[in-house]
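Re-run with default settings, no changes from the original entry. Doing this only to confirm the output is reproducible before filing.
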Amino acid sequence: MRHANLSLILIYLSCTPKAILIEQPKLVSLYFENKIKKIEKDKPETLKDKRLLMKTQVEYAFGVIVEQADRLIDDDYVGALEEYKKSYNLFNNAKKIGLSILENRYPNFNNWLNGNASIQFKKEDVQDLYWLAASYGGAISSSRGNPFEIVNLPFIGRMLHKCIEIDSEWQKGALHSAMMSFTSTRTDLSEKILRDSVDYYFKNAIKFSNGKDAGPYLTYAELIHKPFQEKNAFLDKLNYVVDMDIHKNSKYELTNLIAKSRAKWLLSKKDEYFLE
């Protein structure tokens, strides 16, 4: 019966417009949880299966669980913390997989991560470095300020910088979008250098995606315009995301739907974010 239910869910998900699925987080969660369980049950041993499990865990944690927790935090603090903890566990599981992949390929990878070794990475390493960086970033953000996680921030920058060095245009600007988020967390930069750096990555993310990825606009609004109290620019970028034609490019359809949903939520809370 359980398998029959899963089959029905998979059929429903494949036939239902993505826009409707975004409004059904419980159904999407059930889909991701069953997908992860199935991969784990098969005991992934191939590189392809390990990559799939790591990617699925990170996507589920970021795109569904953290998103729910962010929206829940003001009304149900305890419930939100439970969701953050759930995502934190997924990020850590993904982190273990990513580390095992790269440590098996490069025995001195951990030393490299700490700046104590040199490795000649290849293009095929970029996806593993990227998803490992994403899992570290997710673990840090979902830990809610855990100092034992925050100390890992430099690892993210090291991996993303290396990825850009190897293949700057990978996944049409995904690396530069990620660098926007990482750079915004750096407390060692002056405001001008931070803004200039984020601007640089923002322009590259837009260039490589041909402006079709809503992510960079959303990231800039939330991580730059919001904390710097730039209300008009905040509204402009979020409204731009809301008005985007998400069906123009199937590659970005789902991620842009998620971005559009978050943009609408952020706009609904604009009066809480700005002093004037």
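The chain has 15 helices and no strands. The first helix runs from residue 2 to 15.
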